[in-house]
Sequence to fold (224 residues):
Amino acid sequence: QKEVEQDPGPLSVPEGAIVSLNCTYSNSAFQYFMWYRQYSRKGPELLMYTYSSGNKEDGRFTAQVDKSSKYISLFIRDSQPSDSATYLCAMSGSGGNTPLVFGKGTRLSVIA
Amino acid sequence: IAGITQAPTSQILAAGRRMTLRCTQDMRHNAMYWYRQDLGLGLRLIHYSNTAGTTGKGEVPDGYSVSRANTDDFPLTLASAVPSQTSVYFCASRQQPSSPLHFGNGTRLTVT
Fold:
């Protein structure tokens, strides 16, 4: 079993829809959880950053972490065509300089 | 604007040639990383450096070398390029272990 699993999609939704993106993981030591957005021919950019369990909201984006289920989610409300990108989850433990472990990314298209 | 600069943005290279990908950051981050991103495989860590003067191997280090002579620069060298090294290469950095990564915009390398 890979450390982080993420459905690659592609996922296609109409403009205005609520989008749910998810990752599961196997390492219970993970404490820091991130979502990155990557546009075509660009580097990943940080979208959301959370520590341990709980929810975090930023505008139309909500990140959820359920450590008991080893499951994280990113919700996008009122999705826009400009949200079309690849979304990568990433996570790391709290011990030392452990590199981030990334999901493979989910490709999202929001159709106007 | 503070960030990570990668050069070149793209390159076509003959197999067997030597190539250095450059990465410079102006955020004074301690840790720097090199990833390659391939379709279906996601981001894979090649090498990393937790602080100037130290380096470490990631998931796919073979055929690559790095150096970290100072805080700002972290070049990646392919000693003798092979076609399987055709990929998009991303440099990233972060200030401390719990911080998220900041990425450059990548170098698209084709080895023929």
Notes: DSSP finds no helices and eleven strands in chain A. Residues 17 and 104 of chain A are 23 Å apart (CA to CA). The radius of gyration of chain A is 14 Å. The first strand of chain A starts at residue 4 and ends at 6.
